[in-house]
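Bench notes, afternoon.
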Amino acid sequence: MRRIKISSFAKIRLRIIFVTMLIHATIFIGLFSVIRISSEVANNECSFNYIDSIIENHGNPVFNFSSTTDFKEAYPNLPFTPLFQNVYPYSLKATKLYFSEGMSLRKFCSVKVKFDGENLRILSTYSKSISEDTIQDVTQNIFKKVIIGERQGNYRRFLWKCKAVDKNGTYLLVFLDNSIFFDYLQALRQIRRHVLFMGQFFSFLFSFILSSWAIHMFKIEFNRQKRFLSDAGHELKTPVSVISANVDVLLSSYPGNKWLGYIQTETERMAELTKKLLYLARSDANENKFLMRSFNVCSSIMEVVLPFESVVFEQGKILEMDLPPEGIMVYADEASVKQVAVIFLDNALKNTEENAHIKISVSCQKNKCLLKVYNTGLGIKPEDLKKIFQRFYRSDTSRNRLTGGSGLGLAIASSIAEAHNTSVYAQSEYGKYAEFVFEIPLDTKKIKKAIG
């Protein structure tokens, strides 16, 4: 089954849309949270003011209730007037405007109780449309809070306040039904849901159009650079081949000429660089062909390692292989897997000193096969670990000039891993070791057959 690939531009576009919608959602939720909090503050201010008026009236209803009419009068030291004062209940002035006139319509109850230290006895009640059972339940539960020192608060849908009448354990409790505010909050939640849904819809539409316009310009420039890279690679390929052929002819006539040897070395380096550039150009254009099939990865790695043994010996280094003798069947492009192994081994040879230890191993982990190349030495700096797979990135520029590194090998390994829907990564402890890992898909059909 062919893997569906999402282009880099599509990923960037999705990120733009996601971030835009997230910002809009945060703004909407924050705005409604401010409205809710400001409403609750205003409601509580007005409700407790009304309860205070009832307490001052000895538990009897108040029909001409009024609150402070000026915010500056209530808070004379405040240097500004709240933004929502004339829009939504937030100040005492707005409280009076929005809540006070209807406050007398709310259900409330005042209860005078006697507490002797153990028993609670109700002396008298004044109730407005609240049942006896509710009064008994609320009074008993509220007084439990009074005993521990609380004098006001909320219980279920009621706001309450308590005042000691005398020193003999007589208290006056007043609790006000706050259901109207809960109904308002419920309506506010519904409005929030609808506004959030519509806001997200328009946010998606806006970000979709904006991202299309923004990405279009980047795509034009990227395609221009990609064409240049591909054309440059093709244009360089022919003259490099001609130079290489002529150098070989000259070396056969003048063997041992060091100047011709330098030309040959740099020509080979240029040919290799051109080959890598063409590979990456084809990878960007999704033109690289991969022959996905089942094969024994251990046998393939063995074929790759054998030509390196003489090079390792000449450089005075130690090469170790850890390959399961029974082999591991994977489902991938064999040539690409070999190419990654060559890149890892070549990278290990170029970045290690004499007597360094290089180890290549293959192992299974869940549904993946792990190809690892480990080497001792300087390792990789922590800040370079995430950058080394970028094109032309070289963590040690001076060293790569000496060893001939171009900074494209690991980028090719990364593109191969992406084509196989897996990953490639590096692990290192700077000053001690470096290890590169390539994940290869296992041949699940062979595994199921073996289990069966």
